[in-house]
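Extended Data, panel c. Modelled sequence:
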Amino acid sequence: MYITYLLLAVTILISVKAIEDNVLKGRLLLNPYDVTHFKKWYRTFTHAFIHADWMHLGFNMYVLYSFGEVLEKSLVYRYELWGHALFAFLYLSAILMASLYSINKHKDNPSYNALGASGAVMAVLFAFILMNPTIELGLLFLPIYVPAYIFGPLILVAEYFLAKRGGTGIAHDAHISGAIYGVIFMSCVDLDYLANFLNHFTR
């Protein structure tokens, strides 16, 4: 069984329950104040398994399924059973790494909350991009496709300016952190992935 399917199943089940149960959602949210001052470290991970609404859940799970399955298969093809472990470690560690900036920035703000798998999903997407830099990608409902090595940087630039502008209600800092971590993770697995990706900018 692929880890991707297990993550999808667990996230969907918990998210559906949390969408219908605000008390449960409140207990699982990422609240940096609680994490820092009351040592509720579990919130650093549990927030990635709940979502604000059906659209939020659907979009994240669509991206996880679309890229996670292919990425995991590629890792298994190259590293055999270790590929499953690599994928699981990438996803779970990305939840933590995508949260650290927000935890530090909002550690003294008891009213700040965040939820969703976006940071970890971005790590999966950018790990996929690093392994497949020439595959063409595009945004949902927008039939314009560009090579992944161009698509990735464009997404990061957009996330940066959206984060700088603010007011979107979206944790763009988690998206950026997750994306960068995905690149770093795959570079640590094999530096050739990064070298091959960068070569496309010098041709």
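The longest strand covers residues 136-137. This feature is highlighted in the accompanying rendering.
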